[in-house]
Amino acid sequence: MTAIAISAPAARRHRDGLLVRAVRVRRTRIGLALTLLVLATAFLGPLVAPHGVDDFVGGPYLAESPGTVFGTDNLGRDVLTRFLHGGQLLLVLSLLATLIGVGIGAAVGVTAGYRRGWVDETLMRTGDVLLAFPQVVVALLFLSILGPQLWLIVLIVGLSHAPRVARVIRGATLGVAERDFVKAAEAAAVPRWRIAFSEILPNVTGALMVELGLRLTYSIGLIAALSFLGLGLQPPTADWGLMINENRVALTVSPWAVVLPVTAIAVLTIGTNLITDGLSRASAGIDRGVTR
Amino acid sequence: MMLRLVGRRLLHGLVILFAVSIVVFLATQALPGDAAQAILGREATPERLAALRGQLHLGEPLVGQYLAWLQGIVTFDLGQSLASGLPVSELLIPRISNSLVLMLIAAVIATPLSIALGTWSALRRDSATDHVTSGFTLVLAALPEFVIGIFLVLLLSTGVFHVLPAVFVANEPGPIWIDPLQLVLPTLTLVLAVAPYIVRMMRATMLEVLESEYVQQARLKGLPERTVLLRHALPNAIGPVAQVVALQMAWLAGGVVVVEYLFRFPGVGFALVDAVNNRDLPVVQGLSLLIAAVYIVVNLAADVVALATNPKVRTAS
User: Fold this and answer.
1) Mean pLDDT, rounded, of chain B
2) Nearest-CA neighbor of B107 among B306, B253, B230, B310?
């Protein structure tokens, strides 16, 4: 028990240090600003939207129409209103998928890296099967029969992240599991699950934070892409990925209905990626940019 | 030793492929509920339902269904498309070559370009060029591939310049490269999607190599900088980078799905999205297996490259 009492505060200090150090990097601050901008648009936007989200305000695909700033969409609805409503669900779904993926991935990674042996082999070989599909193909495969349902999208995107996260966290765990405080806890007969949770997990937070940022960026891209393919959120939902798909045939006539959502997705993913880069710079020794 | 390691990876790949076939089967055919009803919808007549159940062997126990399906796969009889009635393999063969052409062109352009850019960046560390490259690759790496594609369309075909077609139009029979202009946007999108990862890896590896003792030694010997770079630095940096290149090539197998859909390019990715929308089960099964197989093979190649270029791995146990 003493081992826990000694190591826990140290771990907490390290975690605070990581965030503070990350914010000192300029690109982290830029990333935070960009992300907050999109978050504000998505969550405060519906409050200031000029029209009802399903209201028809004119003919379809009008570049200019009285009472609208950016014209009308494929059904004659206000582009600005649709845009302001279109980010919320994407953000919530992406965040949930990321939490599921990193949560499961971290649990599996720590278990495999700490227990080693046949547990490690079984977990990692099972992960290899999921790793044999590109993420978008896994998603399409499971959506093909059950259809595009929100819970399924979140679950599949999350699960497709899990083995990728597990690999990284397992690697980080291998180094920690050999350290003295783990040996001390083992000698003090602290239960294995407790060692994993309160000794090892706090010491892989650096890798964990980077994975959170990375997987969030990819979740946003993947879920938006599924909507863009017509296999994510369904009409008449206002959603950025779906808006791009619905309006791209009229790109030359009325471009705003595509330009606004595509820019928002771009700004958001650039923002989260800059934060991730700042985090990985702040927590030294984390190699990134190689995996997807 | 090397051969034995490669053999083990091959065996591992085969086992994974077998497991993948089970996942594909479970995800499509063995889900709770009646697959035939899910595919045909509520209005389906009892006769059509019965016919489809027969075709998919739905009446049999699960293991029997899987074995019947697997037997079809290994004999290249993937069943018939539910949408068009044609054999799946006949539908897919032209599309496979189209997608391979797209992936190959993207790979051939992206690889040398990224390696050159990464090297250049490393040689001019902390210069303006280096900072611009680093910022640009960070931004590009963040963007989903369809976002890159749409920005390119806005830039090159509808908004700023009007020089390239925004979608692929197969108006003439014959190979897709008959009108090479149509290939530019899909290829460029894929290049921009994979390049940042290779550039960043190349830059990082090159910086490490340039600071190594053997490069210092070569410089001290008075060798011209050009020789130092081409004979001593580059060959040592290529190993780790080759693996990243191979991983990016594997990514292309999935990356083509969204990009082909965006540009209406007649390849396997577009076919997969179509099949999922139509609930064309045999086509979905065949294509996911195929894409997974390509993915596994390219990843295997990445492993072999890593083994071949890393003396530590090559000689270990």
Assistant:
1) 84
2) B253
Amino acid at B178: I
- Shortest distance between the Cα of A184 and any Cα of chain B, in A, equals 32
Question: Is the link from the previous residue into B311 a cis peptide, with omega within 30 of 0?
Answer: no
Which three-class secondary structure string do you get for B273-311?
A: HHHHHHCCHHHHHHHHHHHHHHHHHHHHHHHHHHHHHCH
Q: How confident is the model at residue B172 (pLDDT cuts 50, 70, 90)?
A: low
Asked if the Cβ–Cβ distance from B27 to A141 is below 8 Å, we say: yes
What contacts B216, CB < 8 A, 6 or more positions away? none
Domains along chain A?
41-291 (1.10.3720.10)
- Within 8 A by CB and 6+ apart from B241, the residues are B115, B118, B198, B201, B202, B205
Task: Indicate yes or no: CB of A129 within 8 angstroms of CB of B158.
Answer: no
Token pair of B180 as six digits: 């090479």
To the question of pTM greater than 0.80 for the whole model, the response is: yes
CB contact under 8 A, B138 and A27: yes
Residues listed for chain A: 292
CA angle B29, B31, B33 (to 5 degrees): 105
Q: Report the alpha-carbon distance of residue B183 to residue B59 in Å, rounded.
A: 46
Stretch B164-189: mean pLDDT, rounded? 77
Query: In terms of C-beta density within 10 A (0-12 exposed, 13-18 middle, 19 or more buried), how is residue B39 classed?
Result: buried
Answer whether B39 sits within 8 Å of A266, measured CB to CB: no
User: Cβ separation of B35 and A265 shorter than 8 Å?
Assistant: no
Q: What is the pLDDT of residues A226-261, one digit of tens each?
A: 999 999 898 889 999 999 999 988 888 888 999 999
Coil, strand, or helix at residue A213? helix
Q: Show the 3-state SS of B32-50.
A: CCCHHHHHHCCCCCHHHHH
The answer, for B8 touching chain A at a CB cutoff of 8 Å, is: no
In chain A, at which residue ranges do the beta strands (DSSP E only) sit?
A: none
Cα–Cα distance, B198 to B242 (Å, whole number): 9
Residues of B in contact with A273 (CB under 8 A): 138-139, 141-142
* pLDDT at A287 (0 to 100): 45
* Separation between Cα atoms, residue A44 and residue A46, nearest integer Å: 6
pLDDT of residue A289: 43
Please choose, from the candidates B52, B19, B32, B87, the residue with its C-alpha nearest in 3D space to the C-alpha of residue B279.
B52
Question: Whole-angstrom Cα distance, residue B211 to residue B125?
Answer: 12
CA–CA dist B53, B94 (Å, integer):
29
Q: Are B291 and B256 in contact (CB under 8 A)?
A: no
Q: What is the pLDDT of residues A188-203, one digit of tens each?
A: 888 888 888 888 888 8
As given in the structure block, the two tokens for residue A281 are: 């710079």
- The token duo for B214 is 């053997």
Q: In chain B, what is the straight-line distance between the N-terminal and C-terminal CA atoms, in Å? A: 8
Question: Which of A133, A217, A229 lies nearest to residue B258, judging by beta carbons?
Answer: A229
Residue B258 and residue A231: Cβ atoms within 8 Å? no
Tokens of A260: 């606004």
Return the number of other C-beta atoms located less than 10 Å from residue B278's C-beta. Answer: 16
Check CB contact under 8 Å for B197 and A128: no
Q: List all residues of chain B from 234 to 273 with a beta carbon under 8 Å from chain A.
A: 244, 247, 250-251, 253-255, 257-258, 261-262, 272-273
